[in-house]
Give the backbone structure.
Amino acid sequence: MASQAEQFARQLNLGAFGKATELKKRLWFTLGALIVYRLGTYIPVPGVDPRILSDIFDQQAGGILDMFNMFAGGALERMTIFALNVMPYISASIIMQLMTAVSPKLDQLKKEGESGRKKMNQYTRYLTVLLCVVQGYGIAVGLESMTGSMGSAVIDPGLFFRFTTVVTLVGGTMFLLWLGEQITQRGVGNGVSLIIFAGIVASFPTSLAQLLEQGRVGGLSAFAIMAILIGGALLIYWIVWMERAQRRIVVQYPKRQVGSRMFGGESSHLPLKLNTAGVIPPIFASSILLMPATFASFSAAGSGSDWLTEITRLLGRGELLYLSIFGAAIVFFCFFYTAVVFNPSDTADNLRKNGGFVPGIRPGKNTAEYLDYVLTRLTTVGAVYLTIVCLIPEYLIGSHNLPILLGGTSLLICVTVTMDTVAQIQSHLLAHQYEGLIRKARLKGRGGRR
């Protein structure tokens, strides 16, 4: 047991961490930026009654509002300046990546290196502002039409309220983008991902409290609560194992003779992740599926139509139709997004230009077909994995009225962001160790010359 603890400490480089001053500064900056974000989730949008809005959220539990509220860390439920969070930027980034598959001009821009990447980021920001304006105006109009048991959610509806709401929400999202860029440059980890991660994690205590409250009032037995917690821990372990899984395709480079020396002949590998699409398929599938369900619930509440009420029931969380469509959408987006982000033909061409080849496979078209065959099999396994991870919690949420934050999508985001951040911390520690070795070598060299 002691040897395992020592091995774990060596892997984390705890001794090096105490000497890594630069890493400490980055971690403190990241923590301070996330605190600023959390404080902003409590600054309300002017003109909204928070008590009535909370009552409306309780009535519409389980719809698209809950999903967006989860990613916003509760900011949407309180209707604060960060109510949209960075979700418009995520949507804009995905749209731009999808557009590169159908637009040759954008695809060429993507291949131009650093200058092309800067232009793509600029276009993404323009699209983010446009999406923020559209979503902000939709939220403002929706707030004016919302009425709870205590009255209207908006104190003084009208054009001025819509204008101030749009400006406030757009400004909040763009500030979060700037804050995320600062975290990426001056902190540790991907800033945008950490902002989403912080919002989800900040609401975990409330979700656990709701789970324990259900046990106290008799809604769930103690055995059921323990089974849910143990199942959640096992699910996290499985997510980590699957996210780290990859297929390594051997790539051989031929030998070449320059003068009297022989160069090359090395063998490397091309890593292909089991889940290339990441958390994008469940996010897209949830948003697309929950939106018509929420609109149907709003319409059914206002009109009292029987068929709208039936649609709302069939698309409810945990229902067979909901789970079937949700699973099919996850599988579709797994294959679709993987085809967008990985092009076997381009990879095969790059290998051929660099003199690399897969043993037993001819370079060029045959290599591209082989990579496509392997990637299709991997994506099939990854799609099944994502479907199981997301559908089991969804069924439990719908059948036992569990908090939405215990769902598979939120666990996926938390686990993947944590893994990426820990990997960056380890790379910083490794770089610090190399800098220390180089510094010692230089000092020894100077001493020898003296």
